[in-house]
Write the C-alpha cells for this entry.
Amino acid sequence: GNFGGGGIDLGDIFDGLFGGGGGRSGGGPGPRPQQAPPKGANIAYAHLVSFTDAATLAPQRIMLGDGKTVEFKLPAGIVAGQQIRIPGKGQPGPGGYGDAMVTLKIGKHPHLVRDGDNVRIDLPISLKEAVEGGKVKVPTVDGAVMLTVPPRTNSGAVLRIKGRGFTAKTGARGDQLVTLMIHLPNDPAELERLSGVLS
C-alpha cells in the first residue's frame, strides 16, 4: 500500500523538493553508478489517537522532530500498534529523505468499548423508563443521540444504532450496541409505588 500515492513514489517528489537527488544526473566518479545513493534513516514516532477519532477516521496531526507538524489520514480497520508511513519525513541522506514511521495507539473512551467493528455501551435507565418506554440520551462517537426505549423493556436488552461503530477495512461502518441496565430506585417507598404500577 503506497501511502496516498496512487502508484506515484512520493519519495521521488520529496527528493525533487529538497534537492536530495544530487549525484543522479552527473553520474559522478562513484565506483557503482547503478546503485542509487542511500536515503536517510526512518524516524519512529508514537501517536495516540482518541477513541472517537479512531472510529470516525478523523485526520490526525503529528509534530515531527524538527518542530513542523504534518497531517495524515487513519487507515480503515485501524488497530492499535499499526504503523503508518509518512514518506520523506525522516532523516536526510545522500539519496533523499527517509520516512516517518508512526505507530498508532488508540485511547480509551469513558463509556464506549470497541468490539471488532462495533462499539458497545452499558446504559443505565430508570425503572420508569423501562416500564413506560421513552427517549434516552446515548453518547456515540458521532455525538449524543436520542434512543427510543420501547415500553416493558427488560434489563439486558440490546438496542442497535446503525453505522456508529468503527470503519471496517471494506469502508463500511459497524454499529453501536446499547445494553440497557435498569437502575432501581434506592427509596423503598418509590420501589413499592412502581411495583404497584407494574402489577
User: Anything to note?
Assistant: The radius of gyration is 27 Å. Confidence is low (pLDDT under 50) at residues 1-8, 19-25. The chain is about 15% helix and 30% strand.
